[in-house]
Amino acid sequence: MLTIRKQQTKEGPLVELSGTIEESVNFEQLIGAVDGVLTVKCRGITRINSVGVKTWMKYFQSLKSQGVRFRFIECSYSVIEQLNMISNFACGGEVVSILLPFSCVACQNEFVACCNTAELKASNLQVPKAKCERPNCGAQFDDDPEEYFYFLED
User: E strands of 74-144, at which residues?
Assistant: First the structure.
């Protein structure tokens, strides 16, 4: 089940998606009319099934064909997985930021850090440093950078 929180910003609507994207999702109904730039916060998306992928692409391709600008922020692992598997999953929208998984070597704490994609590209896709919230701990990226950042390669 997908839940949505909406708020209006000076640029346009900001929608925060949480849960799973599947066959029952109706983006037109959930998001409504878009006036301005649509910002989609994807931090809470936990799963996208195959029908959900089709629903997502149909909705965002429709927005693009209407000339609506949109961008994705704080993309979760589930979204990044689709971006890496489906070449046009962003449907012409800008992927502004993604969540990076980290784990602490010392205390086994797992956490995510948000990273701007423009900064990642500028650094030749070098994983930024992240600190564990606990003192005297060190964190390391908890995935294969080459695979995780595949969608960012030009």
Answer: 94-95, 97-104, 110-116, 139-141
Count up the domains in the chain and report the number: 1
Burial per residue of 60-82, b for 16 or more beta-carbon CB atoms within 10 angstroms, e otherwise: beebbeeebbbbbbbbbbbbbbb
The CA distances from residue 80 to 24, 85, 115, 126, in Å, are 22, 9, 13, 17
CATH assignment at residue 51: 3.30.750.24
Average pLDDT, stretch 12-36? Answer: 95
Q: Which residue has the higher pLDDT, 6 or 131?
A: 6
59: containing domain = 2-152
